[in-house]
Design goal:
The protein is α+β, with helices and mostly antiparallel strands and 280 residues long. It contains eight helices and twelve strands. It starts with a strand and ends with a strand. Helix 3 crosses helix 4. A twelve-stranded mixed sheet has the order 1-2-3-4-5-12-6-11-10-9-8-7, sandwiched between helices.
Length: 280
């Protein structure tokens, strides 16, 4: 078992993408970094674990010093951990599939390397094929334009505050603006022009698109509008030639909307932070 590091995002993407695609939805965060070389805080380190010339695990250290893990095997996690300790890499937390994050934390604790471990966020990850059939003809999905942006901005702020835990409002509005500028943020309206909900597309992977920022106005909730919008986004993804849609949800209750819509649960993403003890 060996580790190969990479000095550029492009080389990391070219070498790793086929491996990430094996568990595409749960590994989708890797495309967020590898497809955005213009981001202001690129990864500090990128590496793969190989077994007999085959990749069995990927990881990168983000600009804010979080370790992003792929779906992988326990033996690969131990190899990564010893590699980071040997290189004296300082990390402040871990993001990735819940089992892998827990396994890595267990290794760090066995090495007496961390204390004060905190779980910051957990998300269920769903995936489903796109939908091409037409329905809901009394409602339309329109791109957020100049006139629609004030409402979209207000709803993006509300989306951030209502998330569990709350998201950074400024960053969420910036994301919504980027989605809007790219023609990937939409409003659900009826034929009279009344607006009910908002949602759109975030990052893309090699075959899929992430449905993001689903928000229903308070007065229109529990009326099926969120499901209606998701279906329309699935159909839009089909028109854009994506093979699959991915969704993240912070709701862990039994009546999860996306599960009711037929999306399949592919795992749970966990983000932790901790105090890293000095590595001598």
């Amino acid at each position: 078992m060996k580790i190969q590091s990479y000095s550029s995002l492009n080389s990391f993407l070219l070498k790793s993408e086929a491996f990430w695609a094996i568990h595409e939805s749960i590994n989708s965060l890797f495309w967020e970094f590898a497809k955005k070389p213009q981001i202001s805080r690129p990864p500090k380190a990128m590496f793969n674990v190989f077994l007999k010339s085959k990749i069995i695990g990927s990881a990168l250290i983000t600009g804010p010093s979080y370790l992003l893990l792929s779906r992988t095997k326990p033996e690969a996690i131990e190899r990564m951990g010893r590699y980071l300790i040997r290189r004296k890499e300082m990390i402040s937390g871990i993001i990735g599939p819940e089992d892998e994050v827990n396994c890595f934390l267990q290794f760090l604790k066995s090495e007496k390397s961390v204390r004060n471990v905190r779980t910051n966020k957990k998300y269920l990850v769903f995936e489903s094929g796109v939908v091409s059939s037409a329905s809901d003809s009394d409602f339309v999905m329109e791109e957020v334009g100049v006139r629609g942006w004030p409402r979209a901005r207000a709803w993006a702020q509300a989306f951030a505050l209502e998330s569990v835990p709350p998201l950074d409002s400024t960053q969420t509005v910036q994301l919504a603006k980027a989605m809007s500028d790219a023609g990937k943020l939409f409003l659900l309206k009826d034929k009279t022009g009344k607006t009910y909900a908002m949602g759109g597309f975030g990052r893309t992977t090699c075959r899929s698109v992430v449905i993001n920022m689903i928000y229903v106005g308070p007065e229109a909730r529990r009326q099926g509008k969120a499901g209606m919008l998701v279906r329309k986004l699935q159909r839009k993804a089909h028109q854009l030639a994506y093979r699959n849609c991915i969704l993240f949800s912070d709701f862990f209750g039994g009546k999860n909307l996306y599960r009711q819509l037929g999306f399949l649960e592919s795992g749970c993403i966990k983000e932790t932070s901790f105090d890293l003890l000095s590595q001598s």
